[in-house]
Amino acid sequence: MNWYMNKFRVLFFLLIITSAACKEDSVIFSPPPYFNYVPTAVGHTVIYDVDSTHYHEFDSSTAVFHFQVMERIDSTYFDNENRPTQVIVRFKRDSLTGPWYFLTKWNSTLTPSRLERVEDGNRYIRLGFPISATRSWNGNAFNILGEEEYYYLSFHEPLAIATYAFDSALVVQQADDNNFIHRKFGQEKYAGHVGRVYKIFIDADKYATGVYKEGVVYKETISSYIP
């Protein structure tokens, strides 16, 4: 009788362990579909064609620069909040055939509620989750640049850009201020499994005619990518 009782206790104990393990597995985080807009795999690379125009009121000159920027996920580490964070290494070259040279390092942290990017020492909230038509957030909540409301202009819609036709993309409006003397505008586009494919930033003073007199117009457009 004691042998049977001991065997029963062992089986009952194993059943409890198995049940607990199943419950633990059932709460493991499963990435939502919108995580596809932010690749995190080491080696993922995007090359952008860049157009940067600088306006100078002092001598009424305009300087136009064309170059390429490459962003590559170099590694992943855990930040001080124990969150997986990707190191993004950025390179620049002045022509399609010129050599690449190191530009800077940024980092990217993807969480269930947002995408944080540290760019040139400033932490931005580039995407807010879940994605919806009513979703808005302060993109500068973690820096000192002043409140700036971000929101989605469109999402999960096809996007044709450069030589690509993407099945699903997001368009994020970052700033859209326009008056008689100044224009500030920011917008980014993200494609599924690729990440950011387009960026435009305008911060410029204007003449009464509407022509820019002092400031910058900066635009990045995807040229190619490596998953």
Can you walk through the features of this model?
The protein has 227 residues and is mainly beta. It has one helix and twelve strands; from the N terminus they run αββββββββββββ. The protein has one helix at 2-26; strands at residues 45-56, 61-78, 84-93, 101-110, 114-119, 122-128, 136-138, 149-161, 164-178, 182-191, 195-206, 212-226. It has a twelve-stranded antiparallel sheet, with no helix packed on it. A hairpin with a 5-residue loop joins strand 11 and strand 12 (212-226). The termini are far apart.
Brief digest:
This protein is mainly beta and 227 residues long.
What is the radius of gyration computed over CA atoms, rounded to a whole number of angstroms?
24 Å
Q: What is the mean pLDDT?
A: 89
Low-confidence stretches: 1-29
Number-wise, the strands total 12
**Mass-distribution shape:** globular
Spatial order of the strands in the main sheet? 6-5-4-3-2-1-12-11-10-9-8-7
* Largest sheet report: 12 strands, antiparallel
Q: H/E series, N to C?
A: HEEEEEEEEEEEE
Structural class: mainly beta
Termini, distance in Å?
A: 63 Å
Number of helices: 1
Fraction of residues in helix:
10-25%
Strand content: over 45%
